[in-house]
């Protein structure tokens, strides 16, 4: 087993290679579909049909945006969490989907990337819905571990023989420090997910938005101290900024 790390539009792409099959540890951005196709066919010299499994760890644009297109190209299957319903359901979900695409464009701008079309379906049509601790279909040396908090359906992917884990957005790096991501919809679930990772003690940890590190390089006590007590979400952030703006508006003296 070999893991290839590709530079994606705004995130790392992890392509797992075996002699007879390939797997993506996440569904990438829509803008990454050609990147993955070209790497498999030109760099690895393999047919795109060798891509047998595309995992979607959660529904954000840089983790699910390319999944349907890659399945159509390769004939592979999509696997995701068995969380009930769709993440972007209803009117609120529709608005949040638009907001998350806008945030992905904002991140791309910070990385000096050109704006690409990131539109993707807000409803995921998966082939497999994974219970926690389930092995990945066709890749039984990998295990899906539910790690919600960022959303209600995040999963981490653990390679059992090498004790190496991909945690997607469970942690992100800001100014050189690993911190909780934004948003955190479910703080208590997020805390439990961090405690699960700490107890698991994998040898190596792969992130969606920073370089792989050894478990010894992570200060869990420092990170646990940063876990929010209340949800950190789009709407709460907007409301907080609105309150700040109102507080600085000068009041007129009545004369």
Overall tally of structural domains = 1
- Topology pattern, helix = H, strand = E: EEEHEHHEHEEEEEEEHEEHH
Distance between the termini: 78 Å
CATH architecture: 4-Layer Sandwich
**Number of DSSP helical runs:** 7
CATH fold category name: Metallo-beta-lactamase, Chain A
Mean pLDDT across all amino acids? 93
Main β-sheet, spatial strand arrangement = 1-2-3-4-5-6
- The percentage helix is 25-40%
Overall CATH class = Alpha Beta
> Rough shape?
globular
Largest sheet, in brief, is:
6 strands, mixed
Low-confidence regions: 251-255
Structure description:
The protein is of the alpha/beta class. The protein contains seven helices and 14 strands. It has a single domain (2-224), classed as Ribonuclease Z/Hydroxyacylglutathione hydrolase-like (Metallo-beta-lactamase, Chain A, 4-Layer Sandwich). The strands form three sheets. It has a six-stranded mixed beta sheet with strand order 1-2-3-4-5-6, with helices on one face. The protein has a six-stranded mixed beta sheet with strand order 7-8-9-10-13-14, with no helix packed on it. A hairpin with an 8-residue loop joins β8 (139-146) and β9 (155-159). The model is unreliable at 251-255 (pLDDT under 50). It comes from Pseudoalteromonas gelatinilytica. Keywords: Hydrolase.
Topology:
Elements: E1 2-7, E2 12-18, E3 21-24, H1 33-43, E4 51-56, H2 61-64, H3 67-74, E5 77-81, H4 90-110, E6 128-130, E7 135-136, E8 139-146, E9 155-159, E10 164-166, E11 172-174, E12 177-179, H5 187-200, E13 204-206, E14 213-214, H6 220-224, H7 234-247
Parallel strand pairs: 3-4, 4-5, 5-6, 10-13
Antiparallel strand pairs: 1-2, 2-3, 7-8, 8-9, 9-10, 11-12, 13-14
Keywords: Hydrolase
Organism: Pseudoalteromonas gelatinilytica
Pfam families: Lactamase_B
